[in-house]
Design brief:
- The structure holds two protein chains of two kinds.
- In chain A, a hairpin with a 4-residue loop joins β2 (about 50-55) and β3.
- Chain A is globular and about 50 Å long.
- The mean pLDDT of chain A is about 90.
- Chain A contains three helices and four strands, in the order βαββαβα.
- The longest helix of chain A has 24 residues, at about 25-45.
- Chain A has helices spanning about 25-45, 70-80, 100-110; strands at about 10-15, 50-55, 60-65, 90-95.
- Helices cover about 40% and strands about 30% of the residues of chain A.
- Chain B is of the alpha/beta class.
- Chain B has a single domain (about 5-235), classed as Metal-dependent hydrolases (TIM Barrel, Alpha-Beta Barrel).
- Chain B contains nine helices and nine strands.
- Chain B has helices at about 15-30, 45-60, 75-85, 95-105, 125-135, 150-170, 190-195, 205-210, 210-225, and strands spanning about 5, 35-40, 60-70, 90-95, 110-115, 135-140, 175, 230, 235.
- In chain B, α1 (about 15-30) packs parallel to α2 (about 45-60) and α4 runs parallel beside α5 (about 125-135).
- The N and C termini of chain B lie far apart (about 40 Å).
């Protein structure tokens, strides 16, 4: 029976401070932090994908592999500023194995 | 049972009670049940009572904490004599080997802190052995690490890994705290626990360093500060003629 090499994990993020305007900027910021702490090998294994980003509310959903979720969460916590040096904090408010469950819980968790 | 998370070092400078209340509310929203805001040795009992009252209103448990920065052995011992009965937690910022040795050996010290420069950190084999005998913990504030330039951070992370490994070897408790110098640097307990993987701690060890270790330290000290405390394991249960 074929076995998946990794399972998906969805992280609900809440951004505080100087939020990036575009999703690409946010993803680049997270990738930079991941590469800085764990190298390109760690970043490659994380299989990051930004599912959605609402700059106005400062909410985002990020997908990663379950094997690298700890690394991704460490990288997210280590971000203290955006590329211009303005203060930024990214908090993981929830994590789930399915997007549906995450979206269902998000309104209560992201308050 | 859910963990009772603690952040024993919210190091934001406070100018008013409102700012303290804001920090405490933020800490509670992040899931902390126990918080310490380090104050100076000159803080009065009234100021500490006001902070405790604000924490009660917000719904978090506040441990009173003072951080000492002694320049010599005499300064440290004198400060400990005056302050031990006033504060629930005493942290010592060790800037010299002499102070680090005395602080590690003294049972009145709860937390050992070191500067962010690897060469000025004096937590070695001897320090770890002394600390293991006196029950004081090695405190690692995590967030200031990420404000350092890259080269300094890499050097410090290497040094911290060695210290954590020494602490594990000698059975010295490790306490993780945010060390947040501004509210934006505060992080949820699980985020700090994942960050601690950089120091060679497993997730379980990191969660303990953010919950069980600090909570039990505060409880032990509160028991010691209680007027009925005589010695570890001995306390006054009843006074007066009704004692058999």
């Amino acid at each position: 029976m074929p076995v998946r090499p990794y399972r998906k994990r969805y992280l609900a993020l809440k951004l505080e401070g100087s939020r990036p305007e575009e999703g690409e900027e946010l993803l680049a910021l997270v990738l930079d932090a991941l590469v800085e702490l764990f190298g390109e090998s760690g970043a490659a294994g994380a299989r990051l994908k930004l599912i959605e980003y609402d700059a106005g509310r400062g909410l985002a959903i990020l997908r990663c592999s379950h094997t690298h979720m700890g690394l991704v969460r460490a990288a997210l916590a280590s971000i203290t500023a955006d590329r211009a040096g303005k203060p930024l904090a990214i908090h993981v408010v929830d994590a789930s194995g399915t997007l549906r469950a995450l979206r269902k819980r998000l309104p209560t968790r992201a308050r | 049972m859910s963990r009772r998370f603690a952040d024993l070092r919210l190091a934001c400078p406070l100018s008013s009670l409102e700012e303290a209340r804001f920090l405490l509310e933020r800490a509670r929203a992040f899931g902390y049940k126990l918080v310490a805001l380090p104050v100076g040795p000159e803080a009065t009992r009234d100021e500490l009572q006001a902070l405790k009252a604000a924490a009660d209103e917000v719904g978090v448990d506040l441990a009173t904490r003072v951080d000492l920065t002694p320049g010599s052995r005499q300064e440290l011992l004198s400060a400990l004599r005056h302050l031990r009965r006033r504060f629930e937690l005493i942290g010592v910022f060790c800037r010299s080997r002499e102070v680090a040795r005395v602080a590690a050996r003294d049972r009145r010290v709860d937390l050992l802190l070191f500067p962010l420069r690897p060469r000025q950190r004096f937590f070695d084999h001897s320090g770890a052995e002394l600390a293991s005998g006196s029950n004081c913990a090695l405190e690692i504030p995590l967030m200031p690490l990420f404000r350092l330039p890259r080269a300094e951070r890499i050097a410090l992370l290497g040094r911290l890994r060695e210290e954590v490994s020494l602490a594990k070897r000698y059975g010295v408790p490790v306490v993780l705290s945010s060390g947040a110098e501004e509210p934006m640097l505060m992080r949820r307990p699980r985020e700090l626990a994942y960050l601690a993987s950089l120091l060679g701690l497993s997730l379980e060890e990191a969660l303990n360093a953010l919950s069980e270790v600090p909570s039990s330290m505060v409880e032990r000290n509160r028991a010691k500060l209680d007027p009925s405390f005589i010695a570890p394991g001995i306390r006054v249960v009843r006074w007066g003629r009704d004692c058999p």
